[in-house]
Structures are given as structure tokens and as C-alpha cells.
Specification:
Shape: globular
Largest sheet: 6 strands, mixed
Mean pLDDT: 88
Low-confidence stretches: 1-25, 444-456
CATH topology of the largest domain: D-Maltodextrin-Binding Protein, domain 2
């Protein structure tokens, strides 16, 4: 009788334990985070794993985004239109808060309850995610267009400094390209950039246009000024690079395509984002395949006729979907990935530029990203950008712009015709509160930065 009672008790305890185990297993939350695919995704995986190690009750699955920023936005908008709960956290471009705000969680209460010190971030970068008083995201890393150049080849062909102007760059590129091809490298080109019809071309073309004194497509006061002689000249100049110093296929290049050519040792100059620096040096551990390790450096982008360069300032944010079924856990993930320690780790391992102010005087980061101090003015004095004045219609504006530029680069038309048509199209997109007019006489100061967007 005693044994029978004991067996019943043990059985009851075992079943209870199994039931509790089942409850515990079911209580583990699974999050899905939508992350970009430019660069080394294994580093993103490492950061996510660090979060899971610190939060064993949360599992995080990465959903890989397309390479093109334009395609990324399309996927996000499709998900949000369906009010899908499949994705909990989105990585989104710095120019999209106004487009996505209605479908993202206001993080303000969670920031307060979690005692997040937001003063550590550059105010312009943090406040960029504030839409109508709602903090719809957190800045993760920022970007600025820069010029990569082969130090060994400049020395080989008698150049003692990187190009200061676009005209000088084109001349140097032609000289180096001719010499390298004569030496037996038929695949060598002078310059590679992002020439495909996507958001990355908006960045590149705006840099050429603005540095030439051609304005910002749409000015802060609502003036549509893209159809002007200086903007037209800048794009016509770029079109002349195709097939001469830049490969004909550059009109289909995105970031990774340009990096592939440069990193293979087949280009003298490259316009790209900072992420490509550490990869070109062989990755964080120096073991990745590259033919240019120790043979290149970076500088601010060359100036146009306006006498100053212009760097497209962008970056990526993290926001929580309003349709997530696990909002507290998703907020926890975002705060982890964007904290100063994780931003430093990302800078050291991916050469992504932090949004935390203190990182720019950190000796460890300065050693890994030697050019980082040069970029501080970019984040402190960023100029107005088309995404601010055009708001939710920015994507339509950008699509019209990069298609107009792409038509010129591919020889379908000339910049004068393309931009005349573009101005009329933009007026139709933006409506009666916007007017077609000239570029303002008061342009930004020398060494200006132009806040546009990133194609990475």
C-alpha cells in the first residue's frame, strides 16, 4: 500500500515537473529582426547572439533584407500595409522615419522606464527618429560617403596627394587606368561607384550635384531647383565617366559590386561607405580575401565647381513594429544593440560609424578606423536634406530623381532634357505647396555636408 502511494506521488511530481518544463519552454519568446545584407552579416549574427546569451528567455531569428535600400523599403511597406506581426524589429534607413512612423512603436515610455541615457547620441541623429513627438526608432550606425584610393598606385604614377576635385580625380583615374592596362591588367578601371537605378544613385548623384553648386533637388523652403545649369553639368560630367574611367557595367553597380571590383585590385578610386574599409583590409581579423590590404586610404569626397565636396549623410535605425506581439522584448533588443558598448563593438568589427558621441574620441576605434575624426563635422553640421522637406513623399521624389539620372548615365537622354522633365514630375508629386525655382544664392559653407540617404 505504501509503495503504491509512493508511486502515485512520484508520478504526480514527475507529471508536474514535465508540465512546468513545458510551460517554461513555451514561455521563451521568439523575435524576428529584419536586417540588411550589405557587408558582413556574420557580425550582425554575433551581436544578436550576444543579446540571446544575456537574455536566455528570448530567441532572435534574423530575416535577411535585400541589398538595395529601395527594395528594403518596399518589403517593409508591404509588411506594414498587411499589419503583419511576422517581423518584430526593422532596420530602416535614416530618411524613412516620416514614411514609417505610423507603423512603428513610440519608444518614449520604454526609454524612460529603461533609464536609457539619450544624451550619449549625436542630437541630430537621435532626433531624426522623432516624428511628431514620437520616438519611433533608435540610431544604430551612421554613414557618410567617402573616397577610397590606392596609395600604392598614386605613388607609382607620380601623384603625391589624393584628388582634391572631381576633375583632378578623373584625370588621375585615366592616367592610372592606362598605365595598369598597359602593364597587363585589362580589367582595371579608374573609378567605381553606385550607378544602379536605386537609392544609392540618389546619394552619389546628389554628392556630384551639390558639390557643383547645383542644389539639393528640393530646398528646405519647398523650391524644386533640380533643373539648373550646375546640376545638369554635374550629371553630364558623370555620364562622360561611363566607359572611359568607369566600367559600362557600373550603371548596374550597388555597394557590394563596387567593393568587389576595388577589393580585387581592379580600380584606382571608389566612392563607397565606411563599412568597406575594414573589409578591404581583410576584415576585423585580417584573414578575409583582399588584394588591396595596406594599399589604400580614404579621404573626404572631392570638390566640384562650388569649391567644396559633399558627403551624403545617412545611416540605419532600429524600430519596433506596431504589429509585433512581443513589443517589450523587441524594445529590449533595440536598446541592447544601440547601447554604447555594442556600437563600439560594431565600429571595431565592421567599421560602421557609431552614433554615440564619445566613440569619436575612443582610442581603440581611432586605431581601427583611422579616418573617423575627419567625419565629426559631418554629424555636427549636417545640411538640410530632401527627405525632411518632402516627408512621406521622399521615396517618390528619390525614385524619380535616380531614374532621371540613370537615364543620363545609360545614354538614353542628356541631363538638360532629363532634368527639365524631372522638375515638372516632382511638382506633380509634391503638389501646390512646392514651386519650381532657382538654386538659392546662399549655399552651404565650404566643406559642407549634404544629408541625403544611404544605399547600404
Amino acid at each position: 500500500m505504501f509503495k503504491k502511494k509512493l508511486l502515485v506521488m512520484l508520478s504526480t511530481v514527475t507529471m508536474t515537473a514535465l508540465a512546468l518544463t513545458g510551460v517554461h519552454a513555451q514561455s521563451k519568446t521568439t523575435l524576428h529582426i529584419f536586417l540588411g545584407s550589405v557587408g558582413a552579416i556574420d557580425k550582425d549574427k554575433a551581436q544578436v547572439q550576444a543579446f540571446m546569451d544575456a537574455n536566455p528567455n528570448i530567441d532572435v531569428q534574423i530575416v535577411l533584407a535585400p541589398q538595395s535600400a529601395t527594395d528594403i523599403l518596399g518589403v517593409i511597406q508591404q509588411d506594414m500595409a498587411a499589419k503583419s506581426s511576422d517581423i518584430d524589429v526593422y532596420q530602416y534607413d535614416t530618411i524613412w522615419p516620416g514614411i514609417l512612423a505610423d507603423n512603428l512603436v513610440d519608444l518614449t515610455p520604454a526609454i524612460k522606464s529603461s533609464n536609457i541615457d539619450t544624451s550619449v547620441y549625436y542630437p541630430r541623429l537621435f532626433n531624426n527618429d522623432n516624428v511628431g513627438g514620437k520616438q519611433v526608432g533608435m540610431p544604430w550606425f551612421t554613414d557618410a560617403g567617402i573616397l577610397y584610393y590606392r596609395t600604392d598606385l598614386l605613388k607609382k604614377y607620380g601623384f603625391d596627394h589624393p584628388p582634391a576635385t572631381l576633375t583632378e580625380m578623373a584625370s588621375m583615374a585615366a592616367t592610372i587606368q592606362a598605365g595598369e592596362r598597359k602593364g597587363g591588367n585589362a580589367d582595371f578601371w579608374g573609378f567605381v561607384f553606385q550607378g544602379n537605378a536605386y537609392e544609392g544613385l540618389t546619394c552619389d548623384a546628389l554628392e556630384w550635384q551639390y558639390s557643383n553648386g547645383g542644389g539639393l533637388i528640393v530646398e528646405p523652403d519647398g523650391t524644386i531647383d533640380v533643373n539648373n545649369p550646375k546640376a545638369i553639368a554635374a550629371i553630364d560630367q558623370a555620364a562622360k565617366w561611363i566607359g572611359t574611367i568607369a566600367p559600362p557595367g557600373v550603371t548596374s553597380y550597388q555597394e557590394e559590386d563596387a567593393r568587389g571590383v576595388f577589393q580585387a585590385g581592379n580600380a584606382a578610386f571608389m566612392r563607397n561607405w565606411p563599412y568597406a574599409y575594414i573589409l578591404g583590409q581583410g576584415g576585423a581579423d585580417g584573414t578575409a580575401s583582399t588584394k588591396v590590404k595596406g594599399l589604400f586610404d580614404v579621404e573626404p569626397l572631392p570638390a566640384g565647381d562650388a569649391g567644396h565636396g559633399a558627403a551624403a549623410l545617412g545611416g540605419w535605425q532600429l524600430g519596433v513594429s506596431a504589429y509585433s506581439q512581443h513589443i517589450p522584448e523587441a524594445e529590449k533588443l533595440i536598446f541592447f544593440l544601440t547601447n554604447p558598448e555594442q556600437e563600439k563593438w560594431r565600429a571595431l568589427n565592421e567599421s560602421e560609424l557609431p552614433t554615440v558621441k564619445a566613440a569619436y574620441s575612443d582610442p581603440d576605434i581611432a586605431k581601427q578606423i583611422p579616418f573617423i575624426a575627419k567625419l565629426v563635422p559631418v554629424f555636427e553640421n549636417a545640411s538640410p536634406r530632401p527627405s525632411t522637406v518632402t516627408g512621406a513623399k521622399y521615396n517618390d521624389v528619390s525614385v524619380a530623381y535616380f531614374n532621371a539620372v540613370h537615364d543620363v548615365l545609360t545614354g538614353k537622354t542628356d541631363a538638360k532634357t532629363s532634368f527639365a522633365n524631372l522638375a515638372i514630375k516632382l511638382k506633380g508629386i509634391l503638389g501646390s505647396n512646392f514651386k519650381i525655382g532657382p538654386v538659392p544664392t546662399e549655399m552651404a559653407p565650404a566643406a559642407a555636408t549634404m544629408a541625403a540617404t544611404t544605399g547600404s
